[in-house]
Amino acid sequence: MGEAIFMDAFTQDARGAYHWAGRIDRAYEGKTFKITLGVCGGICLFIILMSLLLGSEMLWVVLLSCAGVMAVAALTCGLFSLNAGKRTQRYMMSEEGVYFHQRRYEALFPFKSIKKAVVYPERSMIELYQKVGSGPVFVPPEEFDFVKRFILERLPDTTEVVYR
After folding, report:
1. pTM for the predicted model, two decimal places
2. Is residue 65 part of a domain?
3. How many structural domains is the chain composed of?
4. Which of 146, 137, 145 has the alpha carbon at shortest distance from 108?
């Protein structure tokens, strides 16, 4: 797709690719925080159960360690939630797919690899699912219909499209 050139406004470059920055909504970030805490809690529960089954005499150390891990995870999610709704993700959309860019994270979602698309009109968001991984496409409300149509027209016929 070439080198990405990101603009603050919804723009089209000379090659025909569209660029914009979308604000990540609070609901999506809240979902991420819940997943993080759930995974940490599940791992701690597994470790506690294993120590009970193995008859560990250091159960209190295991319990304190798990409590510490959960506290760090909760504190981290709490600190990130202070900026919830303020972070943005940059996008480039072309005939091949959607390119995501956010600080250290970059990903290309080729349209031909999308297995499912969940459309959230009220949130101006489309979540794209590949075989492994998913990515939200946050769009300025005034450009949502155009981006939705552009993406959906290029998805394979086998792609499941859900409206929520």
Report:
1. 0.74
2. yes
3. 2
4. 137
